[in-house]
């Protein structure tokens, strides 16, 4: 669903042959795959939260045959559940781009965790390298925000890991960048509609994010499915598809 965001950022930063990219919170590897398709030379993905997504990223990106690169495209790929101790690839040259495409504001404390991670990643990049942070746009322009609030309403607030989705603030990303010691250097907004073939597909897609896990534990799967189906009703189109317009904001910061 965030492919338009990846492409807009990569186009703005001229990602291509020679780019040495460190992707934080790389998930299932789709953003890294998009960078590989543009000729990025070195790709390192870090996914500490989900072994299942990391496994899918490895399936997508690791060589299919000896001597080939990501999906046979060439280039070096490293996928791990922790931040590398040093830059990957030939020699000791550091990364020249760091991305954190997982939107801030979906999980309790995620801004704090991201600031710490970015501060640790900054020394791996060359001086002045761009670092990309992402957040939700204004709630009134993000249909999915109202659907995600089902997770907050159903989950027991005393349980560890409960999702607390709050309204995005104008300076959220700048605050995270500042705490990580990064210098803001431009931003943009990208439309990223979430579209699904039907309600069942929408349920599978939203539940796969992990944002509803606490709600399932606090109630049960049937209750979460019921509440989600009701929340999706305003976004069903006459042909049965589900369409939720969203806007995401990205910030480009620079390493010291």
UniProtKB/TrEMBL annotation:
The record ties this protein, via InterPro entries, to: SAM-dependent_MTases_sf
Protein name from the UniProt record:
Methyltransferase type 11
Q: Which organism is it from?
A: Streptomyces asoensis
Q: Where is this region: Disordered?
A: 62-81
Locations of Gly residues compositional bias? Answer: 68-77
